[in-house]
Amino acid sequence: AKEDILMHIGNMMSTPPEKFNIHKSIERTLKGRAKMLSEKIVNWPLAEAMAYGTLLKEGIHVRMTGEDSERGTFHQRHHIYHDVNDETVKYNPMTELFPDQEEYCICNSPLTEGGVLGFEAGYASTIPNALVVWEAQYGDFANMGQALFDNVISSGEAKWYKQCGLVMMLPHGMEGAGPEHSSARIERFLQMIPDDPDVLPDFKDKNFVIKQLKETNWIVANCSTPANLFHILRRQVKLPFRKPLVLITPKSLLRHPEVISPVSHLLEGTEFKRVIPEDGPASKNPDNVEKIIFCTGKAYYDIKSFPKQKLEEKIALSRIEQISPFPFDLVREEIVKYSKAELCWGQEEHKNSGAWSFIFPRIDIVAGDA
């Protein structure tokens, strides 16, 4: 996208309308957004708004539903403002971005995941040229929609030859809220992917990346940067076909001071990164690296924040942003680069959950080929 368009969207999402009595806490949030824009950086909510806003300008309808999507479960989104002196007065800045924009719809839904998820899957299938997003209030709240995942969304194309580009946002993260408010059960979605982990694909094929996406039944991603969120949302409707996207989204990272991206990472010529390689001191002298840790999403910031005892040159930390289809080619590049290093996987979850059981055989076969 062009910088002036991105900045315009950001400014609209940072400025309350005139003569509108906005809540003080939201006012602070908007001032924080304005400060980031002045520094040409974006956080997670701003990147999301920019993804939607640029699509609206390009004539693509955007629709979002979820139990608390208007505000954002973690008080981060705020796409609907309520006048504190008159509850009947509302304002949606996303509908006022451009004079000729496409329709933007966001609404809170009841806690009936099966019904709402089924409706949104049908909507996305019927109107493929729209970005349709369903968001669980917490990742684990998708439990009541499990029949839809199993019987309709994961297998709809194989059963009925019907493509569906629905985005399913599932908040995820072990922040001490207990098991029922922590896990999006990433392992469930990965277990429903039919590819063979013991078969190393031909990633020398120039069309390898697009073929992977075309052949899978759905995409599972756990992004660690606002820029990658921006790109993966836009990619959903820019692909020449439609695939469901299981998007693991963060909780504490929504306000994490390190979870920012420069606006330059959203401009024309940039794209979604399936893997974000180590780019610190370890990458400058790979022969000295003793351990390479692959991880995804929030785990990157947890591992990165540990006291390293001056081990920055001996430990490389690489992020797998698109878990499936698995980025065999880019993971192999990292393994080859750090050929003397021990291979490790880091995650928040217990060993019998999370992405580990999916990741292990794939990294193992890539390492055997490196």
Automatic annotation (TrEMBL):
Enzyme class: oxidoreductase
Keywords: Glycolysis, Magnesium, Metal-binding, Mitochondrion, Oxidoreductase, Thiamine pyrophosphate, Transit peptide
Signal peptide (UniProt feature, chain positions): none
PANTHER family registered for this protein in UniProt: 2-OXOADIPATE DEHYDROGENASE COMPLEX COMPONENT E1, 2-OXOGLUTARATE DEHYDROGENASE
CC cofactor: Mg(2+); thiamine diphosphate
Gene3D superfamilies: 3.40.50.12470, Multifunctional 2-oxoglutarate metabolism enzyme, C-terminal domain
Subcellular location as annotated: Mitochondrion
The species this protein was found in: Diploptera punctata (Pacific beetle cockroach)
Record family assignment: Belongs to the alpha-ketoglutarate dehydrogenase family.
Protein name per Swiss-Prot or TrEMBL: oxoglutarate dehydrogenase (succinyl-transferring)
Predominant subcellular localization, coarse grouping: mitochondrion
